[in-house]
Amino acid sequence: xxxxxxxxxxxxxxxxxxxxxxxxxxxxxxxxxxxxxxxxxxxxxxxxxxxxxxxxxxxxxxxxxxxxxxxxxxxxxxxxxxxxxxxxxxxxxxxxxxxxxxxxxxxxxxxxxxxxxxxxxxxxxxxxxxxxxxxxxxxxxxxxxxxxxxxxxxxxxxxxxxxxxxxxxxxxxxxxxxxxxxxxxxxxxxxxxxxxxxxxxxxxxxxxxxxxxxxxxxxxxxxxxxxxxxxxxxxxxxxxxxxxxxxxxxxxxxxxxxxxxxxxxxxxxxxxxx
Length: 274
What we know:
The protein has four helices and 14 strands. The relative contact order is 0.22. Strands 7-8-9-10-11-12-13-1-2-3-4-5-6-14 form a 14-stranded mixed sheet. It has one domain (2-272): Clam (outer membrane lipoprotein receptor (LolB), chain A), CATH 2.50.20.10. It is mostly beta strands and 274 residues long.
C-alpha cells in the first residue's frame, strides 16, 4: 500500500507540475481576438454557455485515477473547491485517514505528504521548463468547475463577443482567441446544454483536454460526476476524477499549514524522496 501511495503521489505531483506554467496576465484586448464578420459569437447566443455554479463552495468524495503511459494507479479521496480561493484534493487510500493533500491555490500549488511529513510548494512561474501552456489558477478552477472561460481564466460571459460559436452536429463548438500561448474550444451538447468537452492547444504543442460525463443536478445546475483530464506534452499524463456525495454548502475549505515537524523541500528533492 505504501509503495502504491508513493507512486500515486509522485504521478499526481508530476501532473500538478505539468499543468502549471508561467503565464503573464494580459488584458483582454491582448488575450483574445474579437470575432467579426458573419461568424456568430456567444454574444449572439448567450444561453448556449452553461450557467456558473450558484454556490461559492463545492465538496465531494472522489475516486482518483492517475495515468502515465502504461502506469495506472487509483485511490480514494475528497475534493473541496472555493471560488477564487483554491481547489483541494485530499488523498485517503483506505477511505479513512488522509495520507496526502494537494492544493491548487491562486499563487502556487502545495503538495503535502503526511506519511513522510514533507511538503513542497510549486510557484506557477517556476514551472516553465515543462512547456509554456499558459495555464494559471483561474484556468484550472474553471476546468474543475465545468465552465466556459477565456484564456486568462475569466468566465466567457465577461466578453462573449470574443468567443465564436459554430454548430457541429449534436454540439455547439465555442472557441476563444489565443493569449499568445493557449487557445481553447468547448463542446456544448445541444439537447442538454451541458459542457461535455474542453480542449486547450498551445503553440509549443502541449494540449490539455477534459471530458465531462454523468451529469446530475447540483444546486439547480447540471454538473458532471466524472472528469477525465489529459495533459499531452512529452508523454501523456491523465487524471480521472469520479465524484460522489456532492455538497454545495460546504464552506470548510482552508489552505493547509503544515506544522513545525514538516520539512519543506524544493520540487526536485520532493520527487527524489519517493
